[in-house]
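In this section we walk through a basic example: taking a raw amino acid sequence and producing a predicted 3D structure, encoded as discrete structure tokens. The instruction is simple. Fold the sequence below.
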Amino acid sequence: MTATDIIQHLHLLPHPEGGYYRETYRSPEHLTTDSGQSRSVSTAIYYLLENDDKSHFHRIKSDELWFFHQGQALEIVVLTDGQPTTIVLGSDFARGEVPQAIVPANAWFGARLRQSSGFALVSCTVAPGFDFADFELAQRGALSAEFPHLTSLIEQFTKP
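The resulting token sequence is shown next.
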């Protein structure tokens, strides 16, 4: 199947951070976060990036687990303590790829295909569950001011 076939088959929609997604699960159970917000215990989505698509730098207030399904290897770039860490999500274990990865709560992160052609289909789960109220898309200027040594990387993963 092509990326277009998968997008149509799974009824994926454009995501504000880039790529395509569809929520597939939202726990009916809720919890109260430290900030007093009610959130589902867990949520899950399908997520697809193709060709030069990127998941632009963003952060959320919950841990997020990524699971590889098919396609090309995907690089997840996470800013931790002012340094970038790259996790390669894929199925070629001999090349250091892993089938699942965790992005800790409140970390800036983005993703792209390791090679800029093809597609990657993954799932992401968030616990406590995802809510757009907890989503922050990075602003290039502000993130570059915070991490001036990463300006080139930030330009790759933010919108002008």
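Looking at the output, two observations stand out. The mean pLDDT is 96. The CA atoms of residues 88 and 96 lie 7 Å apart. In the next section we compare this with other chains.
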